Amino acid sequence: KHTGNRVHGWPRGECLGGSSAINYQMFSHPSKQDLDNWAELGNKGWNWDELVPYFRKFEKYNPLSEKVGHVFNHEYIDPLLRGTNGPIQISFSENDANFLQEVWPGTCKRAGYPEPRDPRSGSALGGFNQLTTVDPKTVTRSYSASAYYAPNAERSDLFVLTDAVVSKIVFDRDRPTSPTLTATGVEFTVDGQTYSIKASKEVLLCAGAIQSPQVLELSGIGARSVLEKHNIEVMIENPGVGENLQDHAAVPMCW
Predict the structure, then answer these.
(1) In the beta sheet, which residues pair with residue 185?
(2) How much is the pTM?
(3) What transmembrane ranges does the database entry give (predicted)?
């Protein structure tokens, strides 16, 4: 409603690596309070302090050479907060280390905005230069497929099926009237044929901000009014699934 009731396109990465293969490669962080709010709402284990070790685990920070990047390496980034051996490569571009990129954070500060610090400190407000998910050695995108899949593609215990669409998660109840569900498998379609496979240990749902709630709803987890409208059996009624999605806006300026 705040954009004149327009419909907006939302590109998604239907490929290995998902939308990390098509995003802007900006390595942005949430504010500490945003994640602490998750935990305060009852999501144990999802506050800032508990997630920071995982931030460090998946990244490798590549500093600029001191010749061109002294300000970037020391004023915008705290290396002690950054990961050093993760699979996702993060860096500044050598082209970023110029006069404009150095002066605009100071301009924001003088205008009264928060003093820029490394966003990894938990303060993601203010004027600062954004790291990118680019491997500076190859000058290529560093993303889920190149960082996680490619090095493990030949593993004997890994099988990737492409061009498949998940229909739903298959559940078993401990008892017919039990409120507890156990995910036992996945139903999916490929080449027009529907298959159902059983999980020996667990089912992980990692389909992104849009597809994950959709798969849950198709599986019977969501608002009763939505599920019954589409003749889906209600397995667990949860009116929050798929609701209140808020995207962040980006306004690029070029000159």
Answers:
(1) 170, 198
(2) 0.85
(3) none
